Task: structure prediction
Amino acid sequence: PSPSAAPQLDAVIVGAGFSGLYQLYRLRALGLRTRVLEACDNIGGTWYRNRYPGARCDVESTAYSFSFSPELDQEWEWSERYATQPELLRYLHHVADRFDLRKDITLRTRVTGAVYDEGGHTWQVTTDTGETVITRFVVLATGCMSAVKEPDIPGAGTFAGRALHTADWPHEDVDLTGRRVAVIGTGCSGIQAIPLLAEQAAELTVFQRTPVYALPARNRPLSAAETAELKARYPEFRAAQRRSKGGTLFEPPTRSALEVDEAERRAAYEEGWDSGVLSGLLRTYTDILVDRAANETVAEFVRSKIRSIVTDPETAETLSPRTFPFGTKRPCLDTGYYATYNKPHVSVVDLTKTPIVEITPRGIRTSDREHAVDVIAFATGFDALTGSQVAMDIVGKGGTTLREKWADGPRNHLGLLSAGFPNLFTVIGPLSPSVLSNAVVAIEQHVEWITDCIAHLRRNGITEIDATPRAEADWCAHVADLAAQTLYPSVDSWYMGANVPGKPRVFLAYTGGLERYRAECDAAAEGGYRAFALSGGAD
Ligand code: NA7
Result:
């Protein structure tokens, strides 16, 4: 082999969203020569790309924000309970400016691959701009939902009108006034966009394959008094958030849904429904996600709400989920979603009865007819959790690619390091709590663990850290075992990789909760990271 080149950088971070910005802040504070490479024209990650009308966080902004800087907490003002995408993006720009992060971020530079040098303990990172960078560490901060799932529908390229995707919405205002608009997809993105698209469109047709359970967001402006009150107790709030199971604060349930009578259950569900919190119904009883009968009580409650809002009984039935338990696909928070179907120019096509056959130059052909439209908005989702990593040509020890290694599903230790791919960390990737928790709290935990780990390695002259195959096998088994105790794996969802043709069916997230996960990560760091394979002396 050719002699190893000395690293030009200590760390390359891939992606400039919440994860990449915080990782840069932390590694720079350690004194590392660090660069962030970002494919998009600007920073923000998820909150840069998902610009569709109605895009909004469904975790309260006061909780879905960085906790690492008490000063930042005090100076930033959230205007609403649930921030819109533009407000979240303004926040991330403020963070980048306040901590002077931009000077180490290179935009419009997509990482295409990385090859590990086993002699030098370095990664050679390549980009679509033709650059090659040699670095000791790589942190993949590429997000859980960044690889857009292209619509797998015949004829998708033939449409003569305007095709849009919620995850790649144009920067300029898209004026849909007077247009006939189709939306394909009714996940969280579709549900947020549909009420606003309906305000503009002359005709809105929603093509629904699977209805979801959506709860009202009860969004509202935050008053000055509320904000002042929160700011006064922000330090305690942040500390409690870090100790919590999912990054949000609530009293855990103690009883089964089946041990109380119907009136009591109904009252608890009404309260959960009115709370405007995504997990408001999940947190009512202990067994919603583990027992089908318990789950059915809440599923039927949501259906009864849909029937009470949607005036046409047939439409209400079409919108009512019946094929999967409540919560096993991600629930959604909506603002006026179900009521939108009471408008005379809005309709839903039930694709389970009349499936899409093809997209034509004029619109969408279902098995019974052609629907002529001017615009198709695809809200068809993502290759979640693994898509952004396997899109890169990452070559580890022995010439194995990450894509090959993960052909039957992702494998790693603690979601952080995959055996044979040393010094390559992942923030909120697969087999970590990521998508089942408040993502910002999960990100901070990962970034801080990675930072402490790198600091330890450097202090001790260790130039390589790798997951051991044994620890990795144990972790994968543990994640699968925990998931198997829930209803999640019984459902074809993106949590299971089921939304992407050919993707292996593996439950992709850790269901044990952030609190337990944090303890697992801390334990693995004990004794000088003895749960990992360490070696030194490449320099
Ligand atoms: P999701 O939740 O993956 O939703 C995608 C939607 O698109 C869902 O209703 C799918 O139906 C539908 N879909 C996908 N492909 C097709 C085709 N070919 N034909 C018809 N319908 C289709 O993505 P979102 O962007 O809404 O949300 C992703 C996450 O981002 C969300 O959970 C939050 O965490 C933030 P299906 O259910 O597969 O039948």
Q: What stands out?
A: The CA atoms of residues 431 and 509 lie 4 Å apart. The pocket of NA7 is lined by residues 145, 151-153, 166, 184-190, 207, 209-210, 330, 351, 356, 379-382, 494, 499 (CB under 6 Å).
